[in-house]
Amino acid sequence: MLALLLIILICIVVLWIYKNVFFPRKYKDIVEQASSIYNVDPNLIYSIIKQESKFNKDALSKSGAKGLMQIMDATAQDMVKNVANIDGNNYDIYDPYTNIFLGTKYVSYLINHFDGNYYLAITAYNAGMGNIKSWLDKPYNEYTTYFDVYDCIEYTETKNYLTSVIYNYDYYTKLY
User: Fold this and answer.
1) Active site positions, annotated
2) How do residues 5-23 score in pLDDT, each as one tens digit?
3) Cβ 65 vs Cβ 71: under 8 Å
4) Is the pTM of this model over 0.90?
């Protein structure tokens, strides 16, 4: 009986570590609100944030992407026009609320553009829509699996990105 209790306790601790250390849901209220408004699975947003910035709100990439979701200035300017609760003339891209709302709006836009295909949307989030379109040789709805999309990607960084986000997404979905 003691051995069983010890095993249960170890499982609880391991689960707590996975949820709070490896796959946290920081900024939960903001992610849940933005995901609800833009009809995006919050686990996908957590997965992208984890991959993009590891939840560092002050992250800045070599290419100039900023904040939690690593938003480029041009993308922010395009998205802010369609986000009613952010002042389009005066916003801070590093602010978690602003960054998550703009990033989630962009993810929603990509998912809709690629006919609901998460794999193509994730790939475009990293490499840009122009690159994705130039790599594809058939209609979006024919890329039904991870491997269909992965095989088309021409950048190693983007292949790794897609793999990591899907890995994160699978864990977030299982844990939560």
Assistant:
1) 52
2) 888 888 888 888 888 889 9
3) yes
4) yes
